[in-house]
């Protein structure tokens, strides 16, 4: 798909929204970072490039006859425009712009116009390969720098049979290949992390299993290959604007897999799904070379498309020419979606292995405790802070009442509890439970009982391969006694709603990004944007007897106040709240205390001004079947608007029925303040 | 949230090194290639201050960027070895990075006497006999993990292994 479309669309719509909004609230966010941006886009290495260029030309005059023949052959085969050659150069089709290379580092291109002209780059590459110039020492020859290009061109033009092909000295490349003795490659999905906007959509990376780790199953020592933005700011607005518009540089990192496990499983409590990728040894070798070639160069990082999840797919497309992964993605790339797309290619992905978050591991351990042991657990888990001598006695007494196996179980569960609660990772020390953890572990070391095996079963219903497409497009009709019959259009580029039925969805997280709905009112012929959300998030964490987390939600965007009969008024607002959830996956009830702050725009017959007030949000969600979900919901707001008090409430039932494939049916019946009874029916298309 | 919010202070030693060739003669007959972890393309940021050694925190909390930004120049480096330390230092660095990155898990598994992190540590220390290593870890847990400094735990491990009859023979990357 064409890159850049979503970027432009988002930039334009955010820009429009902000400019509308900023007529009321002046905002000056973006300018401050301009300087940094300029700095990051400067390319310091150009000087050396130019000298290389000259040497290329000198040397080519010597080898003229051979290179001339090869270039002629390449031209007659039209290799410069070959789709695989363009893949190796990471050429992207762009929206409203000619195709060009994704990598922005000028050193990735041997030709001056290499980023936009793949034929010119082919000529420069071939000339470079046959250049006998010195290139200032080892590892500098194009043969060392572009092994993946060489592989492909060698296959097409039998370059290695040419006697004039230089014997390049590439010790670093040789070391790279030796160090990456890879036996298997996996695509890894790290599940959604609601605590950070950047991670809310999940993350993907590649895992390289090293042959030497197979025998003892030492997956921790495998290699993670990660593409990430190089963030130079923690300010949310800077982050968002630069992320959307390519202000950050992206870079590949190759690092021990244990570091990724610490980060995701432990520090962020995220599950990891690892899918083996079907690649032949030869294809793995190409991948290793492609990584070498790509990795040394940076490119602009775009939050929506040229992001952490897209780059691994591009690399896979290079390694396996029969794949079309990148092309199957929509204009924006969502991590879970890359798994879905790869999963649709027959035989590409194996069955996943699942690495549970420290939260799931703890829950599983807790299940192994008897009622009696849970009581001891409850007593001991409260021992935070510095441990007093009498508390040490208490711990000893509590443990001594249990047999050795139970003691081991208890301590293992308690330590897992501490580690999860404290998000303990790396060599971090607990803040609250340092004393308890130390006391427990010293006692544990005296008990020679192996820890109970806590294989966490795979939550197959959440397997991201089975997930619906993140983009939702909907058509609907609704009726209420005040407004009559209305038709609606719905559009949401990502990601999902809690009410949404169907497999593979995160059950407890809702992320609605850039959601629009518009209404056409038959009675008046008015067509209006009814609701818009920049970001709307809800996360439900059911209470657990041992470890509970709050449930919360927020919404930033625009809505239509219920009293607004002719759609002429708008409310720009932010709302949010927190509360508790009871139940489990298939039946959950939540209750949240809410607050809203907004601005009602002027309209013909209603007063305008600041709006604020408290609210409540109650709901019961029932997953009757995998393809059928219901929600009973009450939302009520007491709002103070421009000197008067308003009540806005909505009570009713909605349902989602997954029809199979990309189709979803929605129905709802609500009682809404000012509007009365309202019925709605809609069809959603997910892709 | 709390365990990594206060990190970031006082950084320090940035070990940036390229992938090196492989198995050193100095490491004896042990065949394992330790290219990536210690002398990898990636860069490690290690707190020198033993009080709250943390490495992982740098990957979280939006600070991840520093990792990449430090790592990045290494990609552009011209030689595979120019910035690389010698083999014995490389082994030491790798062991330190591993300990720094996994200490919390290691303490838990050492006390329980088994686990994937413990096996990986045995491997990083070159110990062929994983079972014996786990037994050693559990038996000596109170001394080994008395401190919360990863560096200190590592040095106690190294000393402990040297003075253990069984492990001295099994662990080839301890000198």
Q: Can you walk me through this structure?
A:
- The complex is a heterodimer of chains A (687) and B (175).
- With 687 residues, chain A is α+β, with helices and mostly antiparallel strands.
- Chain A folds into four domains: 5-42 and 180-355, no CATH class; 48-166, no CATH class; 361-446, no CATH class; 468-686, Porin.
- Chain A is 32% helix and 30% strand.
- Chain A contains 20 helices and 22 strands.
- In chain A, the strands form three sheets. A twelve-stranded antiparallel barrel of chain A has the order 10-11-13-14-15-16-17-18-19-20-21-22. Chain A has a seven-stranded antiparallel beta sheet with strand order 8-6-5-4-3-7-9, with helices on both faces.
- In chain A, strand 1 (91-92) and strand 2 form a beta hairpin.
- In chain A, helix 12 packs across helix 13.
- The relative contact order of chain A is 0.07.
- The model of chain A is unreliable at 20-55 (pLDDT under 50).
- Chain B has one domain.
- Helices cover 46% and strands 5% of the residues of chain B.
- Chain B has seven helices and two strands, in the order E-E-H-H-H-H-H-H-H.
- Chain B has helices at residues 64-75, 87-112, 116-124, 130-139, 141-144, 150-162, 165-170; strands at residues 13-16, 43-46.
- A two-stranded antiparallel ribbon of chain B has the order 1-2.
- Chains A and B meet through helix 9, strand 5, strand 6, helix 11 and helix 19 of A and helix 1, helix 2, helix 3 and helix 4 of B.
Relevant terms:
heterodimer, A: 687 residues, alpha+beta, 4 domains, twelve-stranded antiparallel β-barrel, 22 strands, flat, B: mainly alpha, two-stranded antiparallel ribbon, 46% helix, 5% strand
């Amino acid at each position: 798909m064409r890159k850049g479309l979503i970027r432009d669309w988002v930039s334009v719509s955010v820009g429009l929204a902000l400019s509308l909004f900023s007529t009321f609230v002046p905002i000056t966010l973006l300018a401050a970072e301009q300087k940094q941006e300029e700095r990051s886009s400067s390319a310091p290495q150009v000087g050396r490039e130019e000298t290389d260029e000259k040497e290329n030309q000198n040397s080519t005059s010597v080898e003229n006859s051979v290179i001339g023949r090869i270039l002629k052959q390449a031209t007659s085969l039209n290799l410069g425009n070959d789709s695989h050659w363009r893949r190796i150069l990471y050429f992207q089709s762009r929206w409203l712009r000619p195709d060009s290379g994704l990598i922005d580092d000028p050193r990735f291109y041997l030709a001056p116009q290499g980023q936009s002209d793949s034929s010119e780059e082919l000529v420069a590459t071939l000339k470079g390969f046959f250049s006998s110039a010195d290139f200032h020492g080892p590892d500098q020859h194009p043969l060392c720098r572009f092994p993946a290009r060489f592989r492909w061109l060698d296959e097409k033009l039998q370059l290695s049979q040419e006697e004039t092909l230089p014997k390049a000295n590439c010790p670093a490349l040789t070391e790279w290949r030796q160090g990456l003795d890879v036996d298997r490659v996996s695509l890894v999905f790290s599940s959604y992390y609601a605590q950070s906007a950047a991670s809310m959509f999940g993350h993907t990376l590649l895992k390289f299993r090293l042959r030497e780790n197979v025998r003892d199953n030492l997956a921790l020592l495998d290699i993670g290959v990660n593409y990430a933005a190089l963030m130079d700011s923690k300010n949310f607005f800077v982050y968002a604007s630069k992320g959307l518009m390519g202000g950050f540089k992206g870079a590949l990192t190759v690092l021990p897999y244990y570091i990724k496990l610490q980060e995701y499983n432990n520090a962020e409590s995220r599950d990891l799904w690892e899918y083996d990728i079907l690649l032949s040894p030869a294809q793995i070798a190409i991948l290793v070379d492609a990584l070498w070639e790509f990795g040394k160069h940076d490119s602009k990082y775009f939050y929506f498309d040229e992001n952490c999840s897209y780059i691994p797919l591009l690399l896979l497309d290079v390694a396996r020419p029969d794949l079309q992964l990148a092309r199957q993605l929509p204009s924006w790339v969502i991590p879970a979606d890359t798994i879905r797309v790869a999963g649709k290619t027959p035989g590409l992905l194996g069955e996943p292995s699942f690495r549970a978050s420290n939260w799931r591991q703890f829950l599983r351990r807790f299940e192994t405790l008897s009622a009696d042991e849970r009581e001891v657990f409850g007593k001991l888990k409260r021992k935070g802070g510095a441990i007093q001598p009498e508390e040490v006695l208490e711990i000893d007494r509590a443990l001594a009442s249990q047999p050795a196996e139970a003691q081991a179980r208890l301590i293992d569960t308690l330590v897992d509890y501490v580690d999860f609660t404290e998000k303990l990772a790396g060599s971090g020390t607990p803040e609250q439970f340092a004393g308890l953890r130390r006391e427990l572990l010293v006692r544990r070391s005296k008990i020679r009982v192996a820890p109970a095996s806590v294989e966490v079963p795979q939550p197959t219903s959440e397997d991201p391969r089975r997930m619906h497409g993140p983009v939702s497009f909907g058509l609907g009709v609704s009726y209420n006694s005040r407004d009559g019959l209305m038709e609606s259009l719905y559009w949401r580029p990502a990601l999902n709603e809690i009410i949404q039925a169907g497999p593979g969805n995160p059950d407890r997280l809702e992320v609605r990004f850039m959601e629009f709905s518009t209404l056409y009112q038959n009675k008046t012929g008015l067509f209006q944007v009814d609701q818009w959300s920049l970001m709307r998030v809800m996360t439900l964490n059911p209470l657990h007897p041992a470890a509970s987390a709050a449930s919360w939600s927020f919404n930033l965007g625009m809505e239509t106040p219920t009293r607004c009969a002719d759609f002429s008024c708008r409310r720009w607002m932010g709302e949010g709240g927190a509360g508790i959830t009871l139940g489990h996956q298939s039946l959950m009830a939540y209750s949240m205390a809410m607050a809203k702050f907004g601005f009602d725009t002027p309209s013909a017959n209603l007063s305008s001004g600041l709006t604020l007030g408290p609210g409540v949000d109650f709901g019961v969600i029932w997953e009757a079947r995998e393809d059928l979900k219901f929600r009973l919901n009450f939302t009520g707001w007491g709002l103070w608007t421009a000197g008067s008090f308003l009540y806005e409430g909505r009570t009713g039932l909605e349902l989602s029925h997954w029809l199979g494939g990309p189709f979803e049916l929605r129905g709802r019946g609500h009682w809404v303040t000012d509007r009365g009874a309202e019925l709605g029916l809609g069809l959603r298309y997910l892709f | 949230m709390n365990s990594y919010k206060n990190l970031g202070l006082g950084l320090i030693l940035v070990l940036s090194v390229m992938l090196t060739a492989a198995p050193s003669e100095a490491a004896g007959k042990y065949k394992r290639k330790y290219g990536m972890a210690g002398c990898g393309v990636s860069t490690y940021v290690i707190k020198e201050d033993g009080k709250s050694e943390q490495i992982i925190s740098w990957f979280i909390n939006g600070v991840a960027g520093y990792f990449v930004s430090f790592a990045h120049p290494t990609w552009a480096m011209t030689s595979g070895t120019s910035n690389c330390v010698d083999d014995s230092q490389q082994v030491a660095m790798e062991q330190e990075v591993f300990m720094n990155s996994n200490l919390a898990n290691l303490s838990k598994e050492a006390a329980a006497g088994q686990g994937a992190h413990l096996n990986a540590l045995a491997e990083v220390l070159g110990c062929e006999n994983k079972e014996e290593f786990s037994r050693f870890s559990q038996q000596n847990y109170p001394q080994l993990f008395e401190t919360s400094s990863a560096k200190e735990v590592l040095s106690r491990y190294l000393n402990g292994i040297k003075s253990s009859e069984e492990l001295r023979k099994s662990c080839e990357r301890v000198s």
